[in-house]
Amino acid sequence: KRRYNSRLWKLFTDCFNCLPLCAVVEDKIFCTHGGLSPELHSIDQIRCLVRPTDVPDQGLLCDLLWSDPDATVLGWGENDRGVSYTFGVNVAAQFLQKNDFDVLIRAHQVVNEGFEVLGKKQVVTIFSAPNYCGEFDNAGAIMTVDEKLNCTFQILKPMEVRRAGGMFAGGMAVANFAGAQGYTSTAMAGQGQQQQMQQMQQQVATGAGAGQKRYSSVPGQK
């Protein structure tokens, strides 16, 4: 059932066309929606992009919104979306080093645990919508950054409707990361989630999957 007309939808799209294309936190954390571009060499290029504007089918603006990291790719690859590219963790590492950033934070992809880390903890995907479209049964994640650039993830588990009585069951995991060398867990809430957190920790210990991360952009700090 349609609640609002297309005029309201047009107002939202006009608003989106004015939104910032990236954010830089304390000169160390680079945030964008999709990812990197083979045309992106300097942050000044992003500053020169004029807004409001429509998103083209190719080029720097398109790539910032549509590209995806891929741990199996070295360099640039073809994107299954049919638009933009995939980029390897080596591309991300080169970009971060050249621009004196520590980490790339992006979204744009459903990840089962709400966030996912690639490479040497230099690329983080955050997806904040649990149970996306009612189909994926994924967790969502929210990241906050404190004054010391320590990042905290709140992992939002999908809510489950109990058939008897219509009650809801779910919970939240809290993950912190500070120190680029590893992950530690803090707390879990909800039935069965402690076991899930232990599995996440084990994945991180072996370099696979998503998990709890403590991270700081301060050079040399662990």
TrEMBL record:
Q: Where is this region: Disordered?
A: 194-222
- Record keywords, A-Z: Hydrolase, Manganese, Metal-binding, Protein phosphatase
Per the record, the domain of life is: Eukaryota
One Gene Ontology molecular-function label? metal ion binding
- Give an example GO cellular component term for this record: nucleus
Q: What class of enzyme is it?
A: hydrolase
Every Serine/threonine specific protein phosphatases domain range: 1-160
- A Pfam family in this protein? Metallophos
Bias (Low complexity) occurs at: 194-207
**What catalytic activity is recorded?**
O-phospho-L-threonyl-[protein] + H2O = L-threonyl-[protein] + phosphate; O-phospho-L-seryl-[protein] + H2O = L-seryl-[protein] + phosphate
InterPro entries on file? Calcineurin-like_PHP, Metallo-depent_PP-like, PP1_catalytic_subunit, Ser/Thr-sp_prot-phosphatase
* Cofactor(s) needed for function: Mn(2+)
Instruction: Return the EC number.
Output: 3.1.3.16
Task: Name the chain's protein.
Answer: protein-serine/threonine phosphatase
Annotated source species: Streblomastix strix
